[in-house]
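Working notes for the structural subgroup meeting. M.R. asked for a predicted model of this chain before we commit to crystallization trials. I am recording the input and output together here so anyone reviewing the notebook later can reproduce the run.

Input as submitted:
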Amino acid sequence: MRRTSLLLTILAVACAPADDQNSGGMASAAAPPGPRVAMAPTASGELPPAIIGQGGALQGADLPYYSGHPTTVGYLAVPEGEGPFPALIIIHQWNGLVDRVREVADDFAAEGYVTLAADLYSGRVGTDADENMSLVQETQGSMGEVIANLNAATAYLKSRADVSGRVGAMGWCFGGGIALSFGLDGVNHDATAIFYGALVDDPDVLEGMDHEVYGTFARLDTGPSPDQVTAFEGALRTAGIENDLHIYDDVGHGFWLSIDGDPDVRTGPGLDAWVRLKAYLNRTLGD
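Returned structure, recorded in token form:
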């Protein structure tokens, strides 16, 4: 791909928690019947249930969205109602598409987004750091395939009758770096949200981004470090790309997807990041 190679050598570093913590085809998709998620946007001062450890029974359905790749099975969560709704692709961390990510997809559906949790590991998940790193390294060797996978996810969502046509992508850690790569090299979409993923500090590369970028980062993180975030912000500014980036004090890598791991420390930053994210998605994907 044109730009993704710049991220390959740092994806693994960005994924490892500091505290050890081709266009493809698309599935048939004319707003088919299936399970729906009741609309229940979070109120002021409220975090989505999944990231505070209160995700309930899964309300979506598995979806083989990538034609010709039967082992690639994502998870689709659709809001109740006729729509049209904006759509969101969410990209898992280095361990793969696990139930917490599926629960987050349900939470975004409750916010009013047709949400597809992508599967970049062909149905596999890691159970320890060694397995996770092996999956990351395998992905590093096939970034063209990763972009094709996400292009297929975008095509699926845009083909649905209940989708407005506006699609965003977001990810955490490994998925954050992939979201940035996809924002630079993927088919047209309208939003890129990064949670502590691998970054780029070359303005000439970032000129390829055609929409505002959101980013949430941690002061106690080393991958990316605060200095790397500052360099990324400066490169975005030089490239003329609007952005909403913030580094949160007192938290480390991976804090947002697991607020329940240290709620006293993580709740405040996590809530602020959520408020910013909701506003960002509304202005980039809303009417």
